[in-house]
Amino acid sequence: MSRPTETITILGAGAMGSALAIPAADNGHEVRLWGTWLDDGLLDAVERGHPHPRTGIPLDPRVKTYRSGQLAEALDGATYVVLAVASDGLVDVLRKAAGHLRAEQVLAVTTKGFVRLGDRILLLPDAVTSVLHEAAPDGGPDLELVAIGGPCKANEVAARRPTAAVHASASADVTERSRDLFATEFYAVESSDDLIGVEVAAALKNVYAIALGICQGLAEHGGEPYHDLQAAAFARAVSEMVRLAGLLGGRPETVAGLAGVGDLEVTALSGRNRVYGTRIGAGETPDEALRAMQAADQTVEGVPAAKLARELVDQLIRFGALGDWSGLPLLRQIADLLGGQEPYTGVGDLAGAIARAALPVRSPAGR
Amino acid sequence: MSRPTETITILGAGAMGSALAIPAADNGHEVRLWGTWLDDGLLDAVERGHPHPRTGIPLDPRVKTYRSGQLAEALDGATYVVLAVASDGLVDVLRKAAGHLRAEQVLAVTTKGFVRLGDRILLLPDAVTSVLHEAAPDGGPDLELVAIGGPCKANEVAARRPTAAVHASASADVTERSRDLFATEFYAVESSDDLIGVEVAAALKNVYAIALGICQGLAEHGGEPYHDLQAAAFARAVSEMVRLAGLLGGRPETVAGLAGVGDLEVTALSGRNRVYGTRIGAGETPDEALRAMQAADQTVEGVPAAKLARELVDQLIRFGALGDWSGLPLLRQIADLLGGQEPYTGVGDLAGAIARAALPVRSPAGR
């Protein structure tokens, strides 16, 4: 690497924030990990050299930690900033950070999902830009944004097991720089200019992983695997992500690659959205399953994402960008099931409901 | 359904042949199941009303069985013929059947893989046409061919669990007819005109499923999951199938749909290719793993498919359709590993080998 050493500030000391610190530190950069007001317990642990409570891996000792009150200090002199907070903390953290960000900084975002601002549902980069401008009414800094997606479980990144991410930005210089900063033997980086494709796939994969988890849970319930149904639902999910990304300006190749197919695969292999779906497939109602997850302090990002995706599609229909829901039957089915729009009639009908939504139908009507 | 009842003859009484008899019989058609000289034991069982030894599901009593000596009788008056024999029996069965096939029949093929005829590697539909012409030197019957792909485990089809197949043919009338014959509430059929895309994906998915199985096995070996690597390899597999299908005249959407993504997902969830890969990932050498599978009477179709795929790519390079192997690093890695072109250096390097092949690299060289 011929690139100079940079100062990288990661906002959010949870699983992904602390994990991303590893490849950046491995590349010799100065890495600062700032924890929100909810992250004190996590920082207490890693500062004592204990494993990070969310990844099970100790923080690299080269990484400097900053507490929530030290935001200005953490950002001062940073050349590259990573926003790695949970989706529901994103707006708050951004508002607090806005006054300390400068136009020459790059702002990368690992947070996934759609964001509601006022009565609009926005993709994450649009939401970030909007919050920054609102926080600094004189215009605010126009940072270059990078969307980070792809199949990256934080615990595997932190453990230096092989992982591939997609770093997407409108500027080829910025994606190249982002790749140089983070890419290691274990953390491979694919460059892309399709921020929208990366973000749409990143947001929706949690919703579809719930559907795939349900298929896995059906086997626990009835003792017989539903592998065909899971695989057909996987293919259907990809086709719907292609459709929705296309409507918003993203490209099919992005969804067919690491950011869509790859991230959906890893999300269906492990993680909280899969577990939540498995519980439903095994016989719990969606509400029971969610309460059980909440009791174990496990947030299920696919649940609010399904609700926001539903509102986003309704918004697209209202604006005339989409005629109706007919190209997105699986998304609608999952959103209806989780949101209560469709009365839950028991696990006995779940396979049929997913099949009706995910499998090709005999007539083109409704698809 | 307004279509008339047809007479469907299925050649091959193994798992897939006996399974496909179910939706056809459910639709009220006359279904004949012909067993090869290797299928007598299977037919003995199902004729006594026992479960089919390969699917665990009894044959529908409406299905008539025919022994290997009754090929002419089984085909006489059939309007739709399904070739559902194992790939290594395909040419033999086709040669025997050729004299009894007629031009007005449709010939559907569930057999998967590439076929070596002389010194050429052919896709299955080309091989079928070639064998039929060779068997009847006056020209032979020009049957309409249908390629059947998609995520269909025979045992799930036979058990009437929801499944989606792709039926592809050059003729829209034929695909529509094929869908009408087989589509049920449980066996959904998507029509396609992209035979090549379906066949390339069907042949290659067994090879890539071995790679995904290796990633699963690594967790058994080391106790730590390699979900990110598996997901990145999945996305890489899809991108390589798109590339190879495109070179041969198939379309990306086919590979991104049920026939590619869907079939790869189900093959990675279960089946012999996955099991074989898992054994390698868990520490057996490729040879040891293959001997163990053979000892359990489990053929691993991905092993010969990897060899044939390697020869096919070399053939494409020789013919100038492809510059070099650079767009297919994962296929090459798996073919080298299984074929001994790369010395096996132990399970310790497997994650690295798959990562080097499947993960994006920092420079475009070699990709």
How would you explain this protein's 3D organization?
The structure is a homodimer of 367-residue chains. By secondary structure, chain A is of the alpha/beta class. The first copy, chain A, has two domains: 7-193, NAD(P)-binding Rossmann-like Domain (Rossmann fold); 196-358, N-(1-d-carboxylethyl)-l-norvaline Dehydrogenase, domain 2 (Orthogonal Bundle). Chain A is 51% helix and 13% strand. The first copy, chain A, contains 16 helices and ten strands. Chain A has helices spanning 15-26, 40-47, 71-75, 90-98, 124-135, 154-158, 172-182, 195-222, 227-248, 252-256, 258-269, 272-281, 286-295, 302-318, 329-339, 350-358, and strands spanning 7-11, 30-34, 64-66, 80-83, 106-109, 114-117, 120-123, 144-149, 163-168, 187-192. An eight-stranded mixed beta sheet of chain A has the order 3-2-1-4-5-8-9-10, with helices on both faces. Chain A has a two-stranded antiparallel sheet with strand order 6-7. In chain A, strand 1, helix 1 and strand 2 (30-34) form a beta-alpha-beta unit. In chain A, helix 8 (195-222) runs antiparallel to helix 9 (227-248) and helix 8 (195-222) packs across helix 14 (302-318). The radius of gyration of chain A is 20 Å and the shape is globular. The interface between A and B is large, with 55 and 54 residues.
